[in-house]
Design a protein that fits this description.
Helix 3 (about 90-95) packs across helix 4 (about 95-105). The protein has five helices and six strands, in the order βαβαββαααββ. The protein has helices spanning about 25-35, 70, 90-95, 95-105, 115-120; strands at about 15-20, 55, 75, 85-90, 120-125, 140. By secondary structure, it is α/β, with parallel strands linked by helices. It has a domain at about 15-65 and about 95-140: Ribosomal Protein L13p, Chain: A, CATH 3.90.1180.10. Helix content is about 30%, strand content about 20%. The chain starts with 14 loop residues before the first strand and ends with a strand. The strands form two sheets. A four-stranded parallel beta sheet has the order 5-2-1-6, with helices on one face. It has a two-stranded antiparallel sheet with strand order 3-4.
Length: about 140
């Protein structure tokens, strides 16, 4: 028996909508990363961008368990001496809740060129409105 390999032209991408209200952040991020990679499809090929386009709504109402809101911080560095920047999750949730979901999903994708390309298929919105109606997205329930 021969192993079948998908070609780039044979990939069919769908549009999916996920409502993040009341879903724990980690559970949401793992499911979204699975859809972005295409691992939910029976024809999954690890070296190709097979994933679907995912729209996450209500990012501001995502559930944070434990004391993450108070204790979790995001670190970045400017590259200069003393250039470490610390951004608490609480402050980021107030100003840009979509960035919190984006960073969680980004951490669960491969750290390669393919992972960066798959992340471009993710759209996160803090509310219920999105401009992707013409793509006729399917709604996915995450429990």
């Amino acid at each position: 028996m021969k192993t079948y390999s998908m070609k780039q032209g044979e990939i069919a991408k769908d549009w999916l909508v996920i409502d993040a209200e009341g879903i724990p952040l980690g559970r949401l991020a793992t499911r979204v990363a699975t859809f972005l990679r295409g691992k939910h499809k029976p024809t999954f090929t690890a070296s190709l961008d097979m994933g679907d386009n995912v729209i996450v709504l209500n990012a501001a109402k995502v559930k944070l368990t434990g004391q993450k809101l108070d204790k979790k911080v995001y670190l970045s560095h400017t590259g200069y001496m003393g250039g470490q920047r610390v951004l608490p999750m609480k402050k980021l949730m107030e100003s840009r809740p979509d960035e919190v979901v984006m960073r969680a999903v980004k951490g669960m994708l491969p750290k390669t060129r393919l992972g960066r390309k798959q992340l471009t298929n993710l759209r996160v919105y803090p509310g219920m409105e999105h401009p992707h109606g013409p793509q006729q997205p399917k709604t996915i329930e995450i429990s």
